[in-house]
Amino acid sequence: MSFSLTNKRKIFNDPVYGFISISNELIFDIIEHPYFQRLRRIKQLGLTHLVYPGALHTRFHHSLGAMYLMQRAIAELRSKGHEITPDEALGAEMAILLHDIGHGPYSHALEHAIVDGVSHEELSRIYIRRFNTIFDGALSTALEIFEKKYLKQFLGKMVSSQLDVDRLDYLKRDSFFTGVAEGVINFERLLNMLNVLGDELVVEAKGIYSVEKFITARRLMYWQVYLHKTVLAAEYMMMRLLKRAKYLSLNGEKLFASPALSFFLTKKVTLEDFQEDEVINIFSELDDYDVFGAMKVWKTHPDKVLSFLSKGLVDRRLFRIELQNDPFGDEYVQEIRKKVISRYGLSEEEADYFIINDRTSNYAYQPNTDQIEILFKDGSVKNIGEATEDLNISLLSKPVTKHFLCYPKEIH
What we know:
The protein is an alpha+beta fold.
């Protein structure tokens, strides 16, 4: 194998869990690789720090934290007599360590603006395959677990499901760094109550209230943090900004940008293109700093749209946002549109960047994808919706949809 065999045991001091040990040399070599180190330069919560100033933690933090929780979960299941081989444990740890490696700068803004509908999950799969090649097939089990193709399905469920270590970490970590106490969950209790029945990941009945708190906390974190209206305004401004930068670049305008950012602005890149070494290597050079550095220069660009949106994001002059349960009336939207065109001297096409009329949904729990199963002392299993008396799962399972309208604050 091409990875180092001389690494000593390493320890990371994590502000959420304390010391995280990296005792496996292959995992340490993956963490040390430039592909993974890039995650240090991508904030976990994108533009959320514009609302919660402490939300400056990175994808790197989250990936290590999720791996730590996977280690804890595996130790718990082994203590209850379930066989998880060293290769399986290593595979599960690597799968969760790399589950977010495909994220680009400002995450979902990039997915919707400068690459053509390529999700971070698809890119993470490509990265795991590349690491598997780099390390002579040592990530084959990790790849099967990540793709939920491994024989022991419960290992894949711990990576991605309604109750996985990914969600446990980001709720705990994001509530810690934002200071939003409603997101605090009892991850210790949830991990201690994990079990396996057949090939299903289950939670022992003693942990049912912790599961209820987990689902409720997730719902509250979505409205207070992830879909906070000011965060929404900032993220959609970023999407429009990158969309405008790409439009100008594809039409011959030479914009200031790092080589990596320039590559994606001047080309229509699809998922198929990421199979090429050149494209994935250039993407691996792209992070938050590329975009923010470009925005600082674009503030003075002669294009009205590019400069206005750049100033707004760099100097935190964010759009006003109105939120409501029903769609906005066409007459009201047109009235705002006329005022925007008149105030800023825009064309109809340019005005599309200044007025954002969209909607967002919050799924606290999605039983149609998979269920959180509760194991009772008599050996029976019920999904959380049937097992709980206090939590209205049917209500939480329905998406709460809000319609929103964004436009410059100068418009009244």
